[in-house]
Amino acid sequence: MARYVVDVMPKPEILDPQGKAVLGALPRLGFAGVSDVRQGKRFEIELEGDASDALLAEVREMAEKLLSNPVIEDFEVHAQGERA
């Protein structure tokens, strides 16, 4: 079984109201020194077969076509337990 992770984040120039809300709440909860927060999405995908470059390419295609909005989001794909 091959496992891949897709991390999707708003592009740096895109306003992130959820991240700003978290940033505003942290000091009220006693957490000081946080200068910025960006909130994104994480997808964990299991595919039949062993991890391979072909499966990695397929997951990248999933991220491009469905899991992210390329106009406002960036994504990163890696095999679970690795960072690409």
UniProtKB/TrEMBL annotation:
Any single biological process term in GO: 'de novo' IMP biosynthetic process
Lineage: Bacteria, Bacillati, Actinomycetota, Actinomycetes, Propionibacteriales
Function: Part of the phosphoribosylformylglycinamidine synthase complex involved in the purines biosynthetic pathway. Catalyzes the ATP-dependent conversion of formylglycinamide ribonucleotide (FGAR) and glutamine to yield formylglycinamidine ribonucleotide (FGAM) and glutamate. The FGAM synthase complex is composed of three subunits. PurQ produces an ammonia molecule by converting glutamine to glutamate. PurL transfers the ammonia molecule to FGAR to form FGAM in an ATP-dependent manner.
Subunit-level organization: Part of the FGAM synthase complex composed of 1 PurL, 1 PurQ and 2 PurS subunits.
Family to which this protein belongs: Belongs to the PurS family.
Signal sequence segment: none
Name the UniProt record assigns to this protein: Phosphoribosylformylglycinamidine synthase subunit PurS
Its EC number(s): 6.3.5.3
Taxonomic source organism: Nocardioides alpinus
